[in-house]
Amino acid sequence: MQTKVLKINSADIDNICIKEAAKLIQKGELVAFPTETVYGLGADALRPEAANKIYAAKGRPSDNPLIVHIARFEELVSIAKEVPKQAKLLADAFWPGPLTMIVWKNEKVPYETTGGMETVAVRMPNHPVALHLIEESGCLIAAPSANTSGKPSPTEAAHVALDMDGRIPMILDGGPVGIGIESTIIDLTERVPMILRPGYITREMLEEVLGEEVCIDPGIIAADSERKPKAPGMKYKHYAPKADLILVEGQTDVVVEAINRLVSEKQAAGQKVGIIATDETMERYNSDCTMSIGARSDEDAIARHLYKILREFDDLDIEVIYSESFATPRIGQAIMNRLLKAAGHQVLTV
Ligand code: AMP
Ligand code: MG
Fold it and tell me: How confident is the model at residue 238, as a pLDDT?
């Protein structure tokens, strides 16, 4: 299959491109498109054969459910068995935006889309290309991240092309995404609302809008927890770079010194080593393969660059990566959740 890449300007949407993409969705085909979080791989969410194509293209395990993307709140109402009162409050505050809500599904939603579950994940993305595509197709669009299963999520169209070329008919290239890590997932089917995946929207932001306590799935916090994460996708080794990734935690000067020493040792043993640094520390490392993730003071930039850096190290055939730790104040939990998974929870405290 030939993959057509259509460039599309988010500030001035070309309706001919959107129409062409929407026709493919209506025919049950796959289209990759930008959202504000990462690129999604979309198909008609209410058709089992269409949803199945997503799993096949990504090599995704079929028990890992898809997020259904909508453009209007009523579309949530149309696929939910009941709409919890919290859903309206959260939608008013955060939609369109990087928040996915889990609700009980009704019979319209096929089990292919929900990975066999009785609940469905729903989000209204804050990206004009995504919203236009949903509206024009007249479909609800199931869309997981548009990467091959196990690879870092794509934050630009070129990443999608690397993973999906020849496997899908179309990629809409709307340029690099704004946020760079996947949506926060909140489960509204429990007695207490529960975060199943941390993201740009934090627990504090959710609690403020809901006026009630929000808990965090214990299964996602500890690496060796006895409890399985409730979101099936969180149990897989995700976001894995080819290299062995080790996080080094501690006071900055000590971290820089420790990483430099470890790099020298590995290099002496003939290994290709990379470093994930920040603008502030970049010059202090002596590896020829040091990349800055951005300024430590700019957490949004750190989130935005994370997956791109992991992919760049893959391309360079680096064998070991040492990374500084980024437990920044607001979205640090979301960043560290991704990075810890990529590192298989290898953390060195110095
Ligand atoms: P992705 O679209 O690649 O960001 O992955 C979607 C994430 O949402 C995965 O971790 C899924 O396991 C999770 N998810 C989707 N639907 C549900 C659901 N009904 N219940 C719990 N987790 C879900
Ligand atoms: Mg994904």
Answer: 64
